[in-house]
Amino acid sequence: MTALLDGLAVNPAAPADLLLRLLEPEYESAWSALASRRPSFPEVVTAAIVTHPHPRVRRALARNPFVDPGVRGRLVDDPEWFVRARLAARPHRTRPVRPLPDRVIDRMLTTYDGDCLEELYFSRQIPFRFQRSYGSHPMASVRRMATTMWAHLSENERAALLNDPHPQVRASAQHMLDTDDAEAMERRLGPLPVPRNHGTLLILVNYRLSQAVVDWLLRDPDYDNSWVLAHNYSTPPEVVAPLVEHPDPKVRLELARRADLAPALVTILARDPDPRVRTAISVRPELTEDERAAVDYTVDTDEDFGPVEHHTRPAPDPDTSAAYARSRHPLLRRRAAQDPTLPAALVARLAHDDDLGVRVLLAHNHPAAPPPLLLRSYLEYRGAARDLLTEHPRFPVTGLGARFADADAPDERRLAVLDPDLGPGTADRLTRDPDAAVRAGATRHPRLPAGRLLALLDDQELGEHAAANPALPETVMRGLLA
Question: What keywords sit in the KW lines (predicted)?
């Protein structure tokens, strides 16, 4: 009975009064499915969940990755710490994160503390544009957070933080200013040689180094020092240059990624024996298309090409995206394909690209991805985010039953049950398919013959999916609660 109740709890046709009954103590086993797996609720059910006396129900809603973030955000002032902590945390480990509403984020930043705030910071639920506004917030603790965006701040914004009326904001801003001060960083490191720990490595890898520290890194026998010098933006050119001959390709790869790499060193590394180094050189922004083509780079087709959480990034530059979309280099075209604002003409161009990565990234990330591209990407791509393609609003579902119901591959037969016009007989047959996902999808299909649907309620494996079928008669739904 628990499985049937779980199915009923997520049934999109279940009436509001039935869902409210499922929130009663008698049906406690269905609470998690109801609150954490439904993509939407009638308003009266939402209100009942948000005010439910048992925190387990509210906590389940807080971690629901399918519902609109605004619905989750109604729990922002929940009296239970565990509920607030779940709201602050990433809702799901593998599904893309959607941002919380601004008013909810502001409420959390100004009322949460400790572990809840830390969960929020790392949850990717705060949009980049909201983070850019930290510096003008009336609360000092939020303005202090603006210093974590230091690289993205204008000179005027930095100056405002350095002169903030609150001492902790000023101190945090000064700390960021000091990271580009070699003498300040040397004082923070302490007497040389320094112990290798998280704090000293942070400085050595990312902050400006004094000549004394550079000299020590050159003398010290630690094997990682060459990588540190190759990576650190402040390493003097005369120290960078000899590293092109370093035997470790990881060191040379870091050199290839330096923004200030001298043209002569770019030329040398373009002929590097390691393909990763040559490939990193080939996508440098200063190269012309002919110069890129002259590099023997490699293109990996085994990568995971999935959706990008665009709200966490600065908006792409339209001119750069357009140039990348027209590039002969597939890795640059892949970058362009991730831009959700790419114009229609360039979308059409990349939809027929000869690189799998370009096509799949465009399919995942553009709201106007052409339907044929979405289907082709599903059929050709085998990466972790593949099934998310079928959730794209433009995924072409009509006709999939006739095309794929008899396919040899089970992942293609799964497409058949997405067809809203799937034949009743075909749906019936697919409930007996060798593949579990096909059987489940067919059992949930609203065109499954009524007799077969009712029979499957007694099936140990498929009963839950039968109870989730929107074609299940309301009288049968209510009977499951009798």
Answer: Initiation factor, Protein biosynthesis
| DSSP state string for 196-242 | -SHHHHHHHHHS---HHHHHHHHHS--TTHHHHHHH-TT--HHHHGG
Helices vs. strands in the chain: H and E counts, helices first: 34, 0
Instruction: Please write the tens of the pLDDT for every residue from 212-263.
Output: 999 999 999 998 999 999 999 999 999 999 999 999 999 999 999 999 999 9
**Nearest one of 384, 449, 439, 393 to 417, comparing CA atoms:** 439
pLDDT digits (tens, 9 = 90+) for 329-372: 999 999 999 999 999 999 999 999 999 999 999 999 999 999 99
What's the CA angle centered on 335, arms 154 and 387, to 5 degrees?
120
The full set of domain ranges for the chain reads 2-126, 134-178, 247-298, 310-391, 400-479
Tell me which residue of 182, 254, 209 sits closest to 243, measured CA to CA: 254
The C-alpha angle with vertex 160 and arms to 199 and 101, in degrees rounded to 5, equals: 80
Written as six digits, the tokens of 279 are 């490939």
Residue 190 zone, left/alpha/beta (φ > 0; ψ -120 to 50; rest)? left
Integer Rg of the chain from CA = 28
Distance, in Å, from the CA atom of 454 to the CA atom of 472, rounded to the nearest integer, reads 8
Q: Are 20 and 479 in contact (CB under 8 A)?
A: no
Alpha-helical regions (H) of 370-456: 371-380, 400-404, 410-416, 424-430, 436-443, 450-456
How far from chain centre, in Å, is Cα 448? Answer: 35
Q: Residue written as tokens 């590039």? A: 327
Residue with tokens 């960021």, as numbered in its chain? 176
How many residues are recorded in the chain? 482
Cα(382)–Cα(74) distance, rounded to whole angstroms?
37
Cβ pair 31, 57 in contact under 8 A: yes
Distances (CA, A) of 187 to 172, 178, 213, 299: 17, 10, 11, 44
Cβ atoms 71, 41 nearer than 8 A: yes
Q: 454: burial class by Cβ within 10 Å (0-12, 13-18, 19+)?
A: middle
Burial (CB count <10 Å: 0-12, 13-18, 19+), residue 244: buried
**Residue among 177, 214, 207 at smallest CA distance from 192:** 214
Structure tokens at 112: 């949460």
* Residue-wise pLDDT tens digits, 2-27: 999 999 999 999 999 999 999 999 99
Handedness of CA 121, 122, 126, 130 (dihedral sign): positive
Half-sphere exposure of 245 (CA within 13 A, CB side): 3
